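Quick one: structure tokens for this chain, please?
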Amino acid sequence: MRAVLLLYLAAVFVFVFAPIVASIVFSFNSDRFPTIPLGSFSMEWYVKAFSDEGVWVAFKNSLIVSVCAATLSTFIGFATAYTDYRYGFRFKGAYIALALLPPTVPLIILALAMLAWLSQLGLSGTLTGIVIAHTVLGAPFAMAVTRLRLSQMDPSLEAAAWNLGASEWSAMRHVILPFCLPAILSAFCLTAAVSFDEFAVAWFVSGLNKTVPVMILEILQGNVDPRINAIGTVVFLTSMTLVIAAQLLLMAKGKST
């Protein structure tokens, strides 16, 4: 039975990662078209891709958006999770359901709603608008990670700090935040990865301020451009680094509990 499960797991990994591995391999292929047998090893497509100023601008936009959206998502997610942990109030279930709702909405519908709303605010086509849209997407993930950490905390710790004379803010600073720090950092990495990879919403609201996924689509339209493999490899490695960092922080959190 164990062998069957391992075989199934290996098949899932091959199914998921084979196209990504192929894209990485072809990014170092000297031939223009992704065919077998491969040509010689070459960095040509990386050089051509990152010699384009538009590529650097798109990466800069994605970096700004992902850092800002991750910061806001982590803050909102922590505040929402702490409210759930600390307070009891009527309709708390509805509060949590609404906080977790955005990822369940189809992206196209969410993108159209964001476009209409941001247009009314005069923020459509701006980096600020993309940050707001990605914060809406990322905050539920940050909340889920932080909420899981808070569920592992002894409720008497905060009360003990109050009994020893700490104010609510002091207890937050010296008890809650240190306990939640691994989850907060993990949430930041995870939401940064979500923002960096997100395409559908960014495509609707970005305007001329293209992020990397939007730029990739524009390059692909009507072309077989091997630069895509090079750009995609960098995007994949960036996202995987963030996701792995988030997972390592969660694992460290679990060991220290």
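The radius of gyration is 22 Å.
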